[in-house]
Design goal:
- It comes from Janibacter melonis.
- This is SPFH domain-containing protein.
- Keywords: Membrane, Transmembrane, Transmembrane helix.
- The protein folds into 3 domains: about 110 residues; about 130 residues, Band 7 domain (Tetrahydropterin Synthase, Chain A), CATH 3.30.479; about 50 residues, no CATH class.
- Strand 7 and strand 8 form a beta hairpin.
- By secondary structure, the protein is α+β, with helices and mostly antiparallel strands.
- The C terminus is likely disordered.
């Protein structure tokens, strides 16, 4: 079904592809990994302290008892200490991939977004990731955007929108929508439908049909091309959500209408075609009448004009391979002929 106006419930989006990290999934994954590493570092540190403490219980110079734990205390302690330091260092850093925006989450509160690369952070700070790549929203076929025209008819706009989040607005988007996949249906698609309704509020399908048939778009408020409409939609979207999303482009490829409106457009185009044919016939008849008047006036002044016309017609007959009567001549009285030929017919004189 086509997408309806802004008050309609947004269509469900397919789940993210395997391996693609969204804002919510990235936060959960990093939160589990970071907290796990921090807990592991604490456990290793405790093991190191206990092992070294046990090792110190054996006096120096006293032979080690093979059965005693003190024999392995010192190596286990130092190994655990080194591992604890390494794990702690890992828990203090984070890597934000290319074309991603990291949002520090400290005790549930989003912080200032960070760009891609290696960053230091507190062990108790989680990092949520937002996709900053260009998103392509193709509203084609059954996913067309449904709008209402000023004549209360329904139109379905086939369009494509390229958009991406503003990195500096990632924290605000996270607080408002939590998951990246919620941004499109809740924000971009709703604003697109609203912008479409505003841009096409005065769109007249009949005026557009007339402009397409005659090439005369005298009323620019009613007859608009798709590029103008797409530009207006992009401008309105930038005004409403430009502080959070970057709208790279809006492309309108086709506008479909409901059955009743389309029937009216088809009938109107037929009438335009009939009118153009009638006007052409009128011009042709006018030209023929003028030519006949000119010929009649010429014949009355100079009879040889009729002979010249006959010769032209005779030459045309020869070129087309038509049969010329035996003994026929355009000169009256010549070769026993009793007439001249005009438009392929013989006239008696």
């Amino acid at each position: 079904m086509p997408r309806s106006n802004p008050s309609a419930r947004p269509a469900a989006r397919p789940p993210p592809a395997p391996g693609r990290m969204t804002a919510s999934s990235g936060c959960r994954q990093q939160q589990g990994a970071v907290m796990g590493l921090f807990v592991l570092a604490v456990v290793l540190a405790v093991i190191a302290v206990v092992a070294l403490a046990v090792a110190r219980r054996r006096p120096k110079g006293e032979p080690a008892d093979p059965a005693s734990l003190t024999r392995y205390g010192r190596p286990v302690g130092w190994a655990s200490a080194v591992l604890a330091a390494v794990v702690l260092a890992i828990s203090l850093t984070t890597m934000v991939p290319t074309q991603q925006v990291g949002i520090p989450i400290t005790f549930g509160k989003p912080g200032t977004p960070i760009g891609n690369g290696l960053h230091l952070k507190a062990p108790w700070t989680d990092i949520a990731l937002m996709d900053a790549t260009v998103q392509i929203d193709n509203n084609l076929g059954e996913e067309r955007t449904e709008i209402r025209l000023k004549n209360q008819s329904t139109a379905y706009v086939q369009n494509s929108v390229r958009w991406r989040i503003k990195p500096e607005a990632a924290a605000e988007l996270y607080k408002a929508h939590r998951a990246f996949e919620n941004i499109g249906p809740a924000l971009q698609e709703q604003e697109l439908a609203a912008a479409m309704n505003q841009a096409l509020a005065d769109y007249n399908p009949l005026a557009q049909a007339k402009a397409a048939a005659t090439g005369d778009a005298t009323d620019s408020a009613e007859a608009k091309d798709f590029d103008d409409l797409a530009g207006q939609v992009k401008e309105r979207m930038e005004e409403s959500i430009g502080d959070r999303l970057i709208i790279d482009s809006v492309i309108i490829t086709k506008i479909d209408f409901d059955e009743k409106t389309q029937s009216r457009i088809d009938a109107y185009q037929v009438e335009i075609g009939n009118t153009r044919i009638a006007e052409q016939r009128k011009e042709t008849a006018k030209a023929e009448s003028e030519a006949n008047r000119t010929l009649s006036a010429s014949i009355s002044k100079d009879p040889n004009v009729l002979v010249s016309k006959c010769l032209d017609t005779l030459a045309s007959m020869v070129e087309k391979g038509q049969t010329v009567p035996v003994g026929f001549s355009c000169w009256p009285g010549a070769s026993g002929a009793d007439g001249v030929l005009v438009d392929g017919t013989s006239r008696d004189r």
